[in-house]
Write a structure and sequence with these properties.
The protein is α/β, with parallel strands linked by helices and 410 residues long. It has 3 domains: 68 residues, Arc Repressor Mutant, subunit A (Orthogonal Bundle), CATH 1.10.10; 137 residues, ATPase, nucleotide binding domain (Nucleotidyltransferase, domain 5, 2-Layer Sandwich); 176 residues, Nucleotidyltransferase, domain 5, CATH 3.30.420.40. It is 43% helix and 17% strand. The strands form 4 sheets. Strands 5-4-3-6-9 form a 5-stranded mixed beta sheet, sandwiched between helices. A 5-stranded mixed beta sheet has the order 12-11-10-13-14, sandwiched between helices. Strands 1-2 form a two-stranded antiparallel sheet. Helix 4 crosses helix 5, helix 6 packs across helix 14 and helix 11 crosses helix 12. The chain is globular. Belongs to the ROK (NagC/XylR) family.
């Protein structure tokens, strides 16, 4: 796959991909920085940049700081050099969008009301129809569409490209990643949703420039993104951060993972909705009933938060209970990881003070003062589409890694 003129020199081809990878990851850079990063001479760097400028892949963008003398020109990737399809699979809906190399959303975010099941075939059949429609509507040159980056809940083995929790197919010899690739005809990256949230925060949000950060994704389930030494940590199989399945409640409810008393059984969006429904059905007085038009199955996190913002005491208490449990769980993480920052993201984070105040009180109660005082707790400001940008960053990064490796071996 080439969007620049193919070179007779494999070394030059590899240098071009490494240069583009640097510009993608670090943004506008002067020639001197590119020389240091790639280990090349100034004439070689200037030659590569000149070639790719003529091919409309890179461009000059402003000037850098001077350390004496003339300010250096900065070079960056042009927009629309390459594109990637990003898909965010949730339990009850899926969102998708096409993103370019400068993190621009090329298409509107398309939301599909499809339920994530454990069966693969039916889900992929529905999903892939919408994926093809999105790609066709964008009218992108095929050589510039580099792949698809998928994020979803569950235990995802990043090396095997398999989700051990959802979209299982014991009759197929293909991994989930291979099944996507077979249908789409593009390289596919599959990752856990909270890793996407963490990478988005690291590249574009509160974690930018930080070294040790915890990102708590509070949606239907509870997930943890771990940033250590400025990198999102995967664990040996990609399973790191399963915060929601920490043992929490003695003799607690049965979790869908098969264990009793997991944190998610008392502190997730699923639990919040379930508890609210049970309360309404048992006669609890709350405006939740009116907001849902007395349709109990419609009671979800957003509706409970809206009721709390309208002063509904039952909703406020439900959110407070969730915040207290989460705060106790987070206090354990703070003592284990000693982060400088804890970022709250996801649907429950939108409850703001109804969650953060009881959460902070629990952290104050259960966490050692000396460690707690070093950890700032903030809410994400990236919005609902942040995970899609995190998926784009991971997918484009892996694309460059593959192309650099291929240039080395061919």
């Amino acid at each position: 796959m080439f969007w620049f003129q193919k070179s007779n020199s494999k070394k030059q081809e590899q240098l071009k991909y490494r240069l583009l990878q640097h510009l993608y990851t670090h943004g506008p850079s002067p020639v001197a920085t590119l020389c240091d990063t790639l280990g090349i001479s100034t004439p070689t760097a200037v030659k590569l940049l000149s070639e790719m400028s003529r091919e409309r892949i890179v461009e000059k963008k402003g000037q850098g700081e001077s350390i004496g003398g003339r300010r250096p020109d900065l070079f960056r990737l042009r927009k629309h050099v390459l594109f990637i399809i990003c898909i965010d699979i949730e339990l009850f809906k899926t969102s998708m969008v096409i993103v370019d190399n400068n993190n621009n959303l090329i298409t509107p975010v398309k939301s599909i009301p499809v339920t994530l099941s454990r069966n693969r075939a039916a889900f992929l059949e529905t999903l892939l129809v919408h994926m093809r429609e999105l790609a066709e509507a964008a009218n992108i040159e095929s050589s510039r569409l580099i792949g698809c980056s998928v994020g979803m809940p569950g235990l995802i083995d990043t090396q095997l490209g398999e989700n051990l929790s959802y979209l299982l197919d014991e009759t197929s010899h293909l991994s989930l990643r291979e099944a996507f690739e077979q249908h789409l005809g593009l390289p596919v990256v599959i990752q856990n949703d909270v890793k996407g949230s963490a990478l988005a925060e690291l590249r574009f949000g509160h974690a930018k420039g930080k070294k040790n950060v915890l990102v708590i994704l509070m949606d239907w389930g509870i997930g943890l993104g771990i940033i250590m030494d400025g990198k999102v940590q995967q664990g040996s199989s990609g399973f790191s951060g399963e915060m929601g399945h920490m043992p929490f409640a003695e003799n607690g409810e049965l979790c869908y993972c098969g264990k009793h008393g997991c944190l998610e059984t008392v502190a997730s969006g699923m639990t919040l909705s379930k508890t609210a429904r049970q309360g309404i059905l048992s006669g609890q007085n709350s405006i939740i009933n009116d907001l849902s038009n007395k349709e109990v199955y419609r009671i979800e996190t957003e509706l409970i938060i809206r009721a709390a913002n309208n002063g509904d005491q039952y909703s406020i208490q439900l959110l407070s209970n969730i915040g207290t449990h989460l705060g106790k769980g987070i206090s354990i993480l703070i003592q284990l990881f000693n982060p400088e920052l804890v970022i709250l993201s996801g649907k429950i984070a939108a409850a703001k003070q109804y969650i953060t105040l009881p959460m902070q009180q629990a952290i104050n109660t259960y966490c050692m003062t000396q460690i707690r005082e070093k950890a700032q707790i903030v809410s994400s400001e990236l919005g609902d589409e942040s995970r899609l940008l995190g998926y784009a960053a991971e997918g484009i990064t892996q694309f460059f890694e593959v192309m650099i490796a291929q240039a080395k071996t061919t």
